[in-house]
Structures are given as C-alpha cells and as structure tokens.
Amino acid sequence: MPIAVDIDVMLAKRKMSVGELAERVGITPANLAVLKNGRAKAVRFAALAALCEVLECQPGDMLRWEAGGDGEGADGGT
Questions:
Q1: How far apart are CA 24 and CA 11, in angstroms?
Q2: Are the C-beta atoms of residues 32 and 25 closer than 8 Å to each other?
Q3: What is the spatial distance between Cα 77 and Cα 36, in angstroms, rounded to a whole number?
Q4: Which of 6, 9, 51, 57 qualifies as a cystine partner to 61, CB 3.0-4.6 A?
Q5: DSSP state letter for 3
C-alpha cells in the first residue's frame, strides 16, 4: 500500500508500548497492530485524533505516502 504508517517511530520517541497506547486511545491492541503494520483499510478520524492527542503529534507524523506502493491507486486500481 502506498500509505506507510510510522506509529512505531512515534512509540519509540515517546518510549511507550503498543499496549499502553491502545489502552490510552481506547482501541484493542489487535486493532492497533493492524493499523501499525499497515494492514488497515481505513482509519476513523476519531481514532486518528485520539492517536494524535496521546502521542502529541500531527497525522503527518504517523502517516506518509510512498510512491510505487502495490500498484493500486485511490480508485482501487481501476
């Protein structure tokens, strides 16, 4: 996927565990892992806002676009 997720970078900078972040954000560690590993198909703005609040960062600190992803564009590859 052309969107890379850098939550692990933010966790390291904040010296915070995945479990602690999940608890403070109010999502399950499994769902956070799906997002963190780039396997999520969507992210609710409420969850993104909560992540930003807890990690004291901007969305762009956690998400970035990479050219040459899996070949699928925003239109699903059509």
A1: 13
A2: yes
A3: 23
A4: 57
A5: E
Do residues 44 and 55 lie in contact, with contact meaning Cβ atoms separated by under 8 Å? no
Rounded CA-CA distance 1/65 in Å is 9
Other residues' Cβ atoms within 10 Å of the Cβ of residue 39: 10
The structure tokens listed for 41 are: 């198909």
At 10-68, the pLDDT tens digits run 999 999 999 999 999 999 999 999 999 999 999 999 999 999 999 999 999 999 999 88
Token pair, residue 35, equals 């997002």
Residues β-bridged to residue 42: none
* Complete DSSP assignment for 9-66: HHHHHHT--HHHHHHHHTS-HHHHHHHHTT--S---HHHHHHHHHHHT--HHHHEEE-
